[in-house]
Specification:
InterPro entries: AGP16/20/22/41 (IPR009424). It holds the Pfam family AGP. This protein has 58 residues and is an all-alpha fold. The chain is 72% helix and 0% strand. It has two helices and no strands. The longest helix has 22 residues, at 36-57.
């Protein structure tokens, strides 16, 4: 029983030490897309749909 108490204490101290010395995480990088790329992609897709519809109608 004494060994389990000592082991529990050692593990507790080790985990406390690791928590104290842990590095803080870096901030998340800024988003690289401001929405203009997404808008251009949607516009291109709509123009392609219009081209296909025009081709099918004529």
């Amino acid at each position: 029983m004494e060994i389990s108490r000592v082991l529990f204490f050692v593990l507790g101290v080790a985990s406390l030490f690791l928590t104290i010395t842990a590095q803080s995480s870096a901030p998340a990088p800024a988003p690289t897309s401001d929405g203009a790329t997404i808008d251009q992609g949607i516009a291109c897709l709509l123009m392609l749909v219009a081209l296909v519809l025009t081709y099918l109608i004529h």
